[in-house]
Amino acid sequence: MTSASGQGEYFGMNDPESRKGGIGVRSPLSRAMVLLLAVVCGAAVANIYYAQPLLPVISKALGVSEGAGGLIVTSSQVGYALSLALLVPLGDVLERRRLVSGLLALSAVALLGAAASPSLGALYASVALVGVTSAVAQIVVPMAASLAADHERGAVVGTVMSGLLIGIMLARTVAGMLAQFGNWRLVYVFAAGVMVVLAIVLRRVLPLVRPAAKTPYPQLLRSVATLVRTESLLRRRMALAAVGMGAFTVLWTASSFLLAGPVYGYGPAIIGLFGLVGVVGAAAATVAGRLADRGRARQVTTGGLILLTASWGVLVLAGRGGPLGLGALMVGIVALNMAQQALLISHQSVLYRRVPHARSRVTTALMVSAFAGSTVTSALTAALYPVVGWAGVSALGAAIALIGLAIWSLELFRPSPAEPVADPSAGVADGADVDVHAAGPSGAHPDDTHPRPHTPEIPQETSHA
């Protein structure tokens, strides 16, 4: 059996070069570690999307309307948003290996509760708890940014975020296949098993990421509000995150009803396969990350918003059915997913550069806004689709994208400050003591007791659009 230390070496965390001179000179993360973190993000966030292609099936099985069934996704997103606000900031002050593995284990318990739910009310409660624990994905992203070397941070974040998008997309495919050959409850049992495996693996190989100091929890939460109040760049990026996630949710909530309806008449397995089309959009994450490393995050944002808006002009044609409608749906899915992924990476890149000492708290603010937008549009789409159909919800998606362009025009003409700022508080630092040599319970090194100074050297962001 491979030892914890040996696993750490395989995952690139025991590099002796990183200990030269007794100072933690951070070496690049290994490809294996980056991919593992990407898998964790994807598997965790998939838990709140398994239900989307199953909404018609679950609604029928529980004897409820499609509108009521559509709120299953809304319930999980409410839990996810609450967790983003209340749990993710703890990534700045708690040891993250224990935090991440513990949340994955709790997620497995919540998923088993969803599988055993006897009624819609019980399922609402269970998936809300699943949403709470699945926010572990947003603890992993800033942790990956902290572990990465300066020159690779954008690319690492892009790869981890591509795992997140692939998880969202493959959740539909996996859920559809399992429901087709078993039933919808089997999907949640499968997801619980995945969480157990990942909790065990991460506990063995994830490096210790010790906080530099402890801060009282109320003060930690207040610091998030302070960041939002004082950073105009954060406020604008939060608004754009809500726009991108809102448009994304409109598409994937409504498309399940469109594909299961009389225009196409597909079963859950076929509906789930459309998630594979969306996986193509994950490629945008790594490209956007590399561009951000070169200081071109603003161009990525501009292109992403234009593509997001244009995608709805194609998607509306999907309501016609037939080969033309099917082709339009597939092209629109790829375009919208590429746009959303590029936007997220651009937001994270500029904000992690602006506030390097509080990456978990910045992630909290950004993702709370994103999933607030997702929750609102999920409920709107479920309520509006039976009334206005595909054309109506496509108009809703296009209107949301146009709002994003209007917000971005303000940033283009009146740019927010984007230079890195110093930590105003000595009590909390996201650049915590990262013990890159501790890869498991037996992997700690007693001589790694001094904080490792780390100053971001991310390229200057260009000011033109």
TrEMBL record:
Residues 421-465 are annotated as: Disordered. The chain crosses the membrane at residues 29-50, 70-87, 99-116, 122-143, 155-174, 186-206, 239-260, 266-288, 300-318, 324-345, 365-385, 391-410. Residues 445-455 have a biased composition (Basic and acidic residues). Residues 421-431 have a biased composition (Low complexity). GO terms for cellular component: plasma membrane. Residues 30-416 form the Major facilitator superfamily (MFS) profile domain. One of its GO terms (molecular function) is transmembrane transporter activity. Coiled coil: none annotated. Keywords: Membrane, Transmembrane, Transmembrane helix. It is a multi-pass membrane protein. It is found in: Cell membrane. It comes from the Bacteria. This is MFS transporter.
